[in-house]
Amino acid sequence: MAEVMSPLVGERIWALPISGSAVKFLQYLLYRSEFGGHIPVKQKDMAREYHQKTPQAISALMAPLCDLRIVLRPRSEERDGNSYRLHPLAAKYESHEAMEAAFRQALRDIKAGELPNLRLPAYVIAPPAQGRPTLQVAV
């Protein structure tokens, strides 16, 4: 069984309007998350694992990811300490089939207003459909 990463974030991570340290922290969150996006680690434990001095340093790294809705904070009545989760469209899954089913459900939830949509930058220029573009050198 191979782990499957969401292409929505993976292919656009280079274009995210966040710092390099936030991108690196997102990679840590992807690693620590469970299939489907639940992050079972409290901020104080993240600080220790990620070699930060305080949980507030983790909050600073998390803030731009929350602004883009890649990381979701539960509503205050649903919080269990500092629990977070990755957006279903940004999470990892145990298989392509599980990812596709989760994406279908997430899209239904977004349309129903039960889940916020990601705030990822759109491509300015669409990438080539296949392979690399043909380049020529002027002589």
Notes on the protein architecture:
The protein has 139 residues and is mostly helical. It is 38% helix and 8% strand. It contains five helices and five strands. The protein has a three-stranded antiparallel beta sheet. The protein has a two-stranded antiparallel sheet with strand order 1-5. The termini are far apart.
Question: Which key features would you list for this structure?
Answer:
139 residues; mainly alpha; three-stranded antiparallel β-sheet; 5 helices; 8% strand; globular
Task: Detail the topology: elements first, then pairings.
Layout: E1 4-5, H1 7-10, H2 20-32, E2 38-39, H3 43-49, H4 55-67, E3 71-72, E4 84-86, E5 92-93, H5 96-111
Antiparallel strand pairs: 1-5, 2-4, 3-4
Helix pairs in contact: 2-4, 3-4
Task: Summarize this entry quickly.
The chain is mostly helical. Helices cover 38% and strands 8% of the residues.
Number of strands: 5
Poorly predicted runs: none
Average residue-wise pLDDT: 83
Question: Order of helices and strands, N to C?
Answer: EHHEHHEEEH
Distance between the termini: 51 Å
Q: In which range does the helix fraction lie? A: 25-40%
Structural class: mainly alpha
Rg from Cα = 17 Å
For the sheet with most strands, the description reads: 3 strands, antiparallel
Shape: globular
- The main sheet orders its strands as 2-4-3
Proportion of strand residues: 5-15%
